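Feature request disguised as a bug: please show the residue count (94) next to DUF4218 domain-containing protein in the output. Example input:
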Amino acid sequence: MQRLLSIAFRDLLDKDIWIAISELSIFFRDLIDINLNVENLRFLHENISKILCKLQKNLSAKFFESIEHFPIHLAYEAILDAPIQFRWIYPFER
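Example output, currently without the count:
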């Protein structure tokens, strides 16, 4: 999904919105990588707020609710604990 989302919307959205969505998908792709290093996670943690600001600037304010700030905490949690895919419960809920 991290790769297909940006490809699917390339021709449908404005360039600024498409760039922000592709940066967001790159963020999630890098976050669930098995080989993580702390420097890369710190870089992700610093840049996710910029990515979300780009989305908020270009999209309607109705799009943003309280849950949209959640990715800001994911990189920091990965720095503290371990790679995120080992702590997600989604595969086990099925």
